[in-house]
Every structure is written in structure tokens, then in C-alpha cells.
Here is the input.
Amino acid sequence: GNDCFGCVKGGESDLEANCMNEAHHHGEPAGLKGDADDNGAVDVMDATCIQKYLVQLTDKINLENADTKSRGVDQIDIMDASNIQKFLVQLSNIDGSTPYDPNYPINPKS
Here is the structure.
């Protein structure tokens, strides 16, 4: 899978090469809201990927997907990682809104 633990800025690992499709850095449409590592699923690795991005340990991130509150890719912060974590344990929707709704859309294309 696309394991964001392998995404270390400046590294040359196979994991880094697989972590992100480079096209998503250049204005491609957003896919799955919260899928920061762009592996097709929203999981705890996405929160980790955002945390690593915020402390400049990686630049391999789908910024559009990481923007859980739709504030703009220049406004991504720890709340986006927190929203993913809360969503995964069904405390809130992917954008942080409550109450949790299992039918709340996370794929803007649907």
C-alpha cells in the first residue's frame, strides 16, 4: 500500500515513490475528502501524513484531500488531522461537523 511513513522529505525510498501520485500537487480535482496520502481510503495514515506535512517531514500529500474543512490548501492545520481522527471513530463528519452521519458525503465527485 501507500504507506506515508515512507514519505520523508528528500528521501529516496520505494515507499516515498509510491506515497503520492505527483499529479495531485498540480491542481488535479480533489478525490476523497480526508485521503491525504491518496491511497483511496480515509484512515489514520492520512492524519499522520498531515501531521508530517505540517512539521515539514514530507511534501508528499494531496493538499486538496487533506483540506477537510474546505478552507483552502494554504489553511491546512492540525484541525484537519483531528477531523480525520474524529471521523474514524465516528465522533464527527469529515469536516468536523456533528453529529456524525454515516451518509455524510466525503467524495465530492459523488
Summary: Helices lie at 14-19, 44-54, 63-66, 78-88. Residues 1-27 have pLDDT under 50 and may be disordered. DSSP finds four helices and no strands in the chain.
